[in-house]
Input
Amino acid sequence: MTRVLVTGGAGFIGSHVVDALLARGDGVRILDVLHPAAHAARPDYLDPAAEFVHGDVRDAATVTAALQDVDHVCHQSAMVGLGTDIGDIADYVAHNDLGTAVLLRELARQRFRGRLVLASSMVVYGEGRYACPKHGIVRPGPRRDDDLAAGRFDPPCPMCGAALEPRIILEDAPTDPRNIYAATKLHQEHLAAAFGRETGVPVTALRYHNVYGPRMPRDTPYAGVASIFASALAAGRTPRVFEDGGQLRDFVHVRDVARANVLALTSPAAIAGTFNVASGTPRTIGAIAAALHAASSTGAPAPVTTGDYRLGDVRHVFASTQLAAERLGFRARENFDAGIAEFAAATLRAPL
Output
């Protein structure tokens, strides 16, 4: 029987990875600190068939013990979301970068020879891929506060100022993290890649796009936009859509994301590399808010578009799924309408 350590296995995505592995008959050990930004208590959805270790991935002794007799490691542990402000910087770096560094050091010390799957994110791309009618593919610079305040949300061509057409982004696109969370996720990728080169351990980095589904935390700035909308609806509040609601993203169901992890952990041969994990169908943020409202039975008011913005946000980013399909055999399966209906009816997890 294969045994897998899932760091962050009590969380939103990690717990679904745990369930998918257990359904295969694999042995699972969870290491999770139960951070108060995400957990009020140990969640009741955790399958008792998985061994649970309450501990911090930044603590070497805890990690060493958790690694005993495991074949593979699935590293989901991280602080997620944009947070609130620059005051979060030390916490993000400590949990995401230092935590990953401690895990990698202990894997090296134990001469680990299994597979390492890393939860990364589409935020490492910054803005997505754009084409100018005159200059072809271009890379717009960071959006400016005065443009956003004036309602000019779409980035212009950096060479001629023309309107740009958003295009699908591939894994070989240049990375350009534009907020603290994004910077830490890219650093995790770099640390894991260096570890893989030095040890020969195959490392698979999965760049999740906008994940939604049951078990998301509610009422926290560290949650994703789908959870923020669902939290508002559950409380009878009006969901507030930033900018003009036209931001394009790819929303992928958490069970699809869990399946991508299982494929990376259990394929007949190890598949190292970096892969987008997405549905392949971009949707606007406004459309997601409207779909959740339509599926909700709370009687909350319809979403409103506010024109508000966050400087660390990007305008459009959506993914090519071709590489994941070719090499991992991953294609999203979950039906969007059914997934949104399920999510709208789900009880969101309470943070402390």
The longest strand covers residues 27-32. The chain has a mean pLDDT of 95. Residues 89-109 form the longest helix (21 residues).
